[in-house]
Amino acid sequence: MRQDLDYAGEFIRQLLPNRKVFDKVAMNYTSIPSAQIGGDILGYFELDEDHLGFYLLDVSGHGVSSALLSFSVQQTLSVVNGANSVVFKDTPNGREIRSADEVVTKLNEIYSQDDSNTLYFTMVYAVLNRKTGEMNYCVAGHPPVIWYQHESQSTQFLGDENFVVGMFDFADYKQDSITLGPNDEIWLYTDGITEARYEDDFYTEERLKLLIDNSRDLELEDKPDAVVSAVREWQHNDEFDDDISMLVCKWTPNQ
Q: Residues in domain PPM-type phosphatase (predicted)?
């Protein structure tokens, strides 16, 4: 059984993206399961020559059932052709990219149908226009996105209250839109980071925002691992109680 779990954990890790540089966009991430199999999954993909979609989700619970649900959602998001696609839709004018709230709504319709399923997930899904820097995003029961603005060298939280995904079939999801400036960064993360604990104190979203702000001079390829290392040092423990996932997207229109 232990060997089977090891194989399953390795399979899930192989689903993580390999490519990290796109036209006008650079991506980086880290993902650390707390046990042999985690319930976090992240990904990104080119939707067309102008748009890139990216996401991070966190399934409730731990272990095999959570990992299977995260795998299922990842596979659902990867379907780009035909009527079963949740990231595209067919219209009288041809195939169009779904907005972030439409994607999350479609996922909720799929995963809230089974009354026997007690699992749900939180997520962020975003669509970035690589030419203009416009980004629409939906935060569904997930910790707020952190937006690092290069010109002002400041950070802020993004995201309104939305339902989790897969629990309520009546859930209504809303999206927001921003326009990135050159070299701005968008940070997605799971609560394994912000709920890291030292004695009775949690790390918190505010601490993470400040840490990202103070990491502005690091290269993008080093930032996620540096953030995780700093949280490890703060909690005086190399191990985390929950899965850790962090994804950063940097808009680089001049490259």
A: 22-251
pTM: 0.93
The answer to whether the CB of 182 falls within 8 A of the CB of 221 is no
Half-sphere exposure of 77 (CA within 13 A, CB side): 31
How far, rounded to the nearest angstrom, does the alpha carbon of residue 248 sit from its chain's CA centroid?
9
Tell me, what DSSP letter sits at residue 128? E
Inter-residue contact 149 to 184 (CB < 8 Å): yes
Enter the DSSP assignment of 193.
H
CA distance 95 to 163: 28
- The residue assigned the tokens 């749900």 is 120
Answer positive or negative: Cα dihedral of 169, 170, 171, 177. Answer: positive
Q: What is the pLDDT of residues 95-105, one digit of tens each?
A: 999 999 999 99
- In the sheet that holds 40-46, the strands lie side by side as 40-46, 51-59, 121-129, 134-140, 176-179
Tell me which residue has tokens 């980071």. 193
Q: 52: closest CA among 61, 60, 43?
A: 43
Statement: 2-251 belongs to CATH 3.60.40.10? yes
